Amino acid sequence: MATEIHRSTVKTCCGPASYPSKLVPTRSQHVLGARVLKRLKKLLGYFAIYVREKPTRLDIAPLVIGIITAIASGVPFLLLGILFGQLIDDSNDRTCEAVASSRGLNPVIQDSYQATVNGKILYIVYLAIVQFVLIYVDLVCWSLGGARLAQRLREQYLRSLLQQEPSFFDHLPAGEVASRPSGDIQTIRAGTSDKVGICLSSLAFFLTSYTVAFVKNSKLAGILILLVPAYFFMSPVGGWFIETYSSRASDRFAASSSIAPESLSNVPVVHSFGANKGLKPASQHICAGLMYFIAYGANALAFWQGSRMIADAVERNGQGATVGSIFTVICILVDATLILN
Predict the structure, then answer these.
(1) How many domains does the chain have?
(2) Neighbours of 249 (CB within 10 A)
């Protein structure tokens, strides 16, 4: 009886299906959720392509080594920036001591300074050798992994073609079977080879650079963090044009090859000999011009603020920012954001 009374009360007060309006998702929320889900599937689909077609240990081992060496190769350049900053500080200190003293530097101090400089130069040489080895192994592993992935996809494509009925090829234009896999697999290989290692190396350098910069000079690093949204706003715009027109060009090449395979088999060559005369030179270099404008503008702002910090430190008898720390922050942050872009 109590249960029936409770049900009747709920039906009369709230209705059979009445919920608060705040709990009902709106149309915009549905659209946003669909976009996020689509991007997530696209991202996961990119990483899933590496394990397509039953990869062996020889296929996975280069990828694992490539990931480790790519991340490690982004660190030596950061250490080079720190060492250069320390060298600048040492030179500045010895110069100030020589100017302050009427007799110049003490020979003992000169020998100590020379030994310090020689030691840091040796560190720079060692770091350069280590970075060369890491980058070489990184590029070799990712190139090998991309080549083996492309070979597996070609074999799977051939097996799929052999399993088709003869009538399947009657509906395809001439040259479509040969031109499509060549262009598509080459695109997959280009996107899964050394570019992935470069991206991982740049990302590792970017994260470690901002960490060190905030430790060295948090105020200047906070100013230069504005480079991140500036570059990331520019990159999707240029990337959208590149992706859109590259896809259109691939479709046009396949269609033209099917119309006249013999005469149009080298469409890219014909294009390079004058088909692009209609493109405006100004529109071709907008992206590069904007990129360097942001970099040089950030350099100007950083050097201006850095000079003010150094002047304040001189007034406080050396308590504060140094020339080397300012140089290190500017060098690693501007380069890190530019490389990541």
Answers:
(1) 1
(2) 14
